Amino acid sequence: MKKNAGDISIGLVSVSDRAYEGSYPDLGIPALKDWLASAITSPYWLETRLIPDDKEQIEKTLHELVDEDRCSLILTTGGTGPARRDQTPDATLAVGTREMPGFAERMRQISLHFVPTAILSRQVAVICERPDHAALILNLPGRPAAIRQTLEGVRDENGTLTEPGIFTAIPYCIELIGGPAIETNETVCKAWRPAKDPS
Ligand SMILES: Nc1ncnc2c1ncn2[C@@H]1O[C@H](COP(=O)(O)OP(=O)(O)OP(=O)(O)O)[C@@H](O)[C@H]1O
Ligand SMILES: Nc1nc2c(c(=O)[nH]1)N[C@H]1C(S)=C(S)[C@@H](COP(=O)(O)O)O[C@H]1N2
Fold first, then answer.
1. What is the per-residue pLDDT for 3?
2. Nearest in space to 178 (alpha carbons), one of 131, 127, 136, 134
3. Most buried by CB count within 10 Å: which residue of 25, 37, 126, 186?
4. pTM of the complete model
5. How far, in Å, is the centroid of ligand 2 from the Cα of 104?
6. 115: domain CATH number?
């Protein structure tokens, strides 16, 4: 596969001590890849990293993905809880230039439909701005099922979406920070953009 000019670069970062050490296989990156493949119809390029729960290493990885790989969107999974080793939100805040609190608030709200412990996630969202480029960085919880739940949202027993997930707002956010257009498969996730006519 070759990256073409104009393709959006998306960074996927799985933060897990045990997956990194090989105690269990990493399911975070595959779950992120699978969901993006089902949801995004425009061309994109993926940069993937599996790293341990280490603040310095998370910051270094995020800096590389923004500055060297020029990712416009970075999704992390894992390390958002209250345990001492959970340091993804702290590293993300250190790398970001502005916080986007709505994404994290919405993820915790959606996750409460699935687990009462959703409020234990300290997940954050930030924009990391450079003079000629910017990236949106979002923390997702580490449990692989949380990836689909937060990105896609809540469906009822008939499969009808009852609470849209956060991905619905991502394409417009990327446009607003100067990144490439993302088109989506509307049966999985409708990208919401405001109407051009202000009325
Ligand atoms: N990358 C991953 N791949 C597979 N399963 C994972 C992954 N990350 C988390 N999980 C699963 O979700 C559970 C909760 O995730 P959590 O991030 O709290 O793990 P943890 O206890 O911090 O350990 P670690 O950082 O070593 O994955 C884990 O116990 C594991 O079953
Ligand atoms: N959608 C969703 N959100 C979730 C969970 C989950 O299983 N699904 N687990 C919760 C739990 S138990 C914890 S401790 C926090 C932090 O998880 P992390 O450290 O794996 O990021 O996410 C919470 N948010």
1. 78
2. 134
3. 126
4. 0.97
5. 12
6. 3.40.980.10
